[in-house]
């Protein structure tokens, strides 16, 4: 596609349930980022993938969070046993040779 | 370590007046600097970047930013604001030395342009 695609756009889940968020990066982009945006908190880095290298997971807030990237393209962010503080907008971005990253529209996660 | 500060949570300006959104940064090496805009219920949209060279960078929608190394600043500017410029603006920095490819973002500034 022409841009970074994220699905679903909105997700409401019950506390304690697991959720999966999907990101389709721009075709050919080898770098992929996940950020979390909470109200008034700016963007919080979660995880970074670059090609076949081991991902940088230094931003994941707890072991309930994990992400994988299959075939160097699509990425899935999984949150297990969701908590209310996980409610936020989850943003995915990708980049290639240029240093700037291009963002998707985000997934708004609400844990009730 | 790298960090970004956007000292103003909100900037108010009248349509037609010049606008400035402030950003200061801290990196160990030399910076790559970025500005992004976010409209309601949308992702971040890239506006402009500083990599090297001319300190005045021009970007989309008439925006520009000035890199000031001595003041470690990268303020976003526009000569004449439009109501449609009202949005959240995010500054980001990345160290241009190898090994750190993850941009750090500021908390954002809400720009409100009044008719």
Report on the architecture of this protein:
The complex is a heterodimer of chains A (112) and B (115). Chain A is an all-beta fold and 112 residues long. Chain A is built from no helices and ten strands. The radius of gyration of chain A is 13 Å and the shape is globular. Chain A starts with a strand and ends with a strand. Chain B is mostly beta strands. Chain B has no helices and twelve strands. Chain B is globular, with a radius of gyration of 14 Å. The N and C termini of chain B lie far apart (41 Å). The model of chain B has no long low-confidence stretch (mean pLDDT 93). The chains are: A mainly beta (112), B mainly beta (115). The A-B interface holds A 4, 6, 31, 33, 35, 40-43, 45, 48, 50, 56, 91, 93, 99-106 and B 32, 34, 36, 41-46, 49, 51, 90, 94, 96, 101-108.
Summarize the structure.
The complex is a heterodimer of chains A (112) and B (115). Chain A has no helices and 10 strands.
Taken as a percent bin, the fraction of beta residues of chain A is over 45%
Query: What is the quaternary state of this protein?
Result: heterodimer
What are the segments of chain A in which pLDDT stays under 50 over at least 5 consecutive residues? none
Helix content of chain A: under 10%
Supply the helix-strand structural class of chain A.
mainly beta
- Provide the β-strand percentage band of chain B: over 45%
Gross morphology of chain A is globular
Number of strands of chain A: 10
- How many strands appear in the DSSP assignment of chain B? 12
Alpha-carbon Rg of chain A, integer? 13 Å
Helix residue percentage of chain B = under 10%
Mean pLDDT value of chain A: 93
Describe the global form of chain B. Answer: globular
Please give the largest β-sheet of chain B.
6 strands, mixed
Rg of chain B, nearest Å: 14 Å
Q: Which residues of chain B form runs of ≥5 with pLDDT under 50?
A: none
SSE order of chain A: EEEEEEEEEE
